[in-house]
Amino acid sequence: MNLYLRYFDKETLVSSADEALDFLCSIGEIDITPDLENDIREYAASDVFFPKRYKIRPRVYFIIIKTEAATMADFKEKRAVRPAPNNEKGRANSTVMKLNEERDGWYEGTIDFKRVQMVPGTGKFQYRDTHFVAVVRAISGIDCYNRIVEHLRQRVDDRSQFPSAKGKNFKFRYMGMAKDMVGQ
Prior knowledge:
By secondary structure, the protein is an alpha+beta fold. It has 2 domains: 2-86, no CATH class; 102-179, no CATH class. Helix content is 28%, strand content 33%. It has helices at 17-25, 34-45, 72-76, 88-100, 141-153; strands at residues 2-7, 10-14, 52-57, 60-67, 105-118, 125-138, 170-176. A 4-stranded antiparallel beta sheet has the order 2-1-4-3, covered by helices on one side. The chain has a 3-stranded antiparallel beta sheet with strand order 6-5-7. It starts with a strand and ends in an 8-residue tail after the last strand.
């Protein structure tokens, strides 16, 4: 694992914490304290892959990024990008792909949203979690979502809040082109 360091226009790619500290020592504006040295060594040895930023003075920082890139060119061209942990990014991309996949037919859409309702005793309004399921004719998952939200917007208070189609509060299922559903 290598370390990329940058301070304004000075940058380097090193293979150890010692080399990183040597680079930082060569920059006169950066004061290497024992705490800073220990923190850089711990970061280099840890399994943490988030970039770290170290404050030099107000609004002035240097950064350290762990990378699997072997050369500066590889790092700059993002050839050694690590996959997101637990494949979160891949899951998000597949959700978007499924939403946009066009399959004309009937969809069952389920949406959980915050509905504004008046409390009868007080006359005040509050948000209530509402679960809504509908079977709609659509050409894609996102079309199903848009039709459901359009339907609900005409029937609930304007202050109601609808979730993103990409989130966990909207689900859909393609049901096909069944002839017995055409009359609904």
